[in-house]
Amino acid sequence: MHLTREDLKKMHRVRRLNLINGISGIKPANLIGTKSKSGIPNVSIFSSIVHIGSDPGLIGFITRQSGDVVRNTYNNICQTGHYTINHIHESFIENAHYTSAKFDAEVSEFEQCYLTEEYLYKFPAPFVGESKLKFGLKLVEEVNIKSNGTKMIIGQVQEIILPENCLDDKGYLRLDKLSDVGIGGLSSYYNLRRIKSFPVAKVGELPEFGGER
After folding, report:
1. Given a cut of 60, is residue 68 above it in pLDDT?
2. Is the pTM of this model over 0.70?
3. Taking the domains of the chain in order of start, what are their residue ranges?
4. Strand pairing partners for 53?
């Protein structure tokens, strides 16, 4: 199958949406926890979270600001400057998925989706109690993406909470030990397992790759 830009334009909107959301492959599945200035907690699923840098630790995610939909996560982060990112595990996929419903700003998704609102180490934003790997961030930058009216929200890591047995002596995480999941498209979930681990790639240290060209 070969699809051109013109083919995509002619495609039914929902079919095109599902296709374009899926072609980037498996994406990380996370819940972002926030609290409004008036004290109402919010938690919502995101699959656009990406590593920006390690020193300082910076993480970004994409949020859409166009249309009439109120973006509670974005508004709360702007109001308070703090939020949490929480990994999703197989044990609460369904609860996490339904946080994507368009709840009113005064409604807590924690309550509606039966997730635990948790406050740790005096961090001002709520963590998800069911999540084993979670971290707190402070807003440092917004980047406007002009091509489609979205924003990248960049936060600096302030706190990391995780089980000791999922971290090796080099700092590598074993996400499979946490039963982490990934998202394909908008609503399909996949489990994760580590296939193999390689050393840092260096010129002059390439393997044989099993044959001649």
Report:
1. no
2. yes
3. 17-191
4. 58
